[in-house]
Amino acid sequence: YEQHKAVVVLENEYYSIKFEHYSGYIVSFYDKKNERELIKERSAVPVVIDEYYHDTWSHNKSFFTDQMARFSDAEVKVVESGAVRATVKVTSRYNNSTLVQYFTLHSGSDKLDVRAVVNWNEKHKMLKLKWAFDIENPHAYYEVPFSVIERPCDGEEEPGLTWFGVKGDNAGFAICNSDTYSGSVKDGTLYHTV
């Protein structure tokens, strides 16, 4: 890792990832092997969605796109730095809620591990993590029991088991998880529902 005035850099032989100090958002996710930027705008952005007009199960509603705020006022700290792995901890806030994210790169691994814990104290609001990948001609895929299904990249909330992702002409990305089971894809941007 490196610490600069405006950003913290998390890096291994595959990626160089830059975190903005005041927001905690990823402002650069650079693929060293292919020499290209993987995101088109700030990513790992905790987005607050207004769901005031939804009932408990959101009957007849399948789009959660009314963004009302973002977590901010972040504290970005390097908590691990060694030959095997490095970890950046991002703590951010919204109203009375706190989100702590641990971003880890391992030596020899081409994946970014993210562990998140949220203390959610909001009503009629939803939290999504936004990943704005640079994808040409995107197609969305979701894990379903014993298979994979392709769905439109139209922003509709869709169920998925342990992963969902997007693949295009120039790249592909997936969010793998163990605790949440839905998300949405709008063009090349993945919204992981927390």
- What is the strand content? over 45%
Report the sheet with the most strands, covering strand number, pairing sense and barrel closure: 6 strands, antiparallel
Assembly context of the chains: single chain
Number of helices: 0
- Trace the largest sheet across and list its strands: 7-6-12-19-18-15
Q: What are the secondary-structure elements, in order, as H or E?
A: EEEEEEEEEEEEEEEEEEE
Please state the overall shape, judged from the principal axes of the Cα atoms: globular
Give the strand tally.
19
| SS class | mainly beta
Write down the overall mean pLDDT: 93
Indicate the percent of residues in helices. Answer: under 10%
Q: Nearest-angstrom radius of gyration?
A: 17 Å
The unreliable regions are none
The N- and C-terminal alpha carbons lie at a distance of: 28 Å
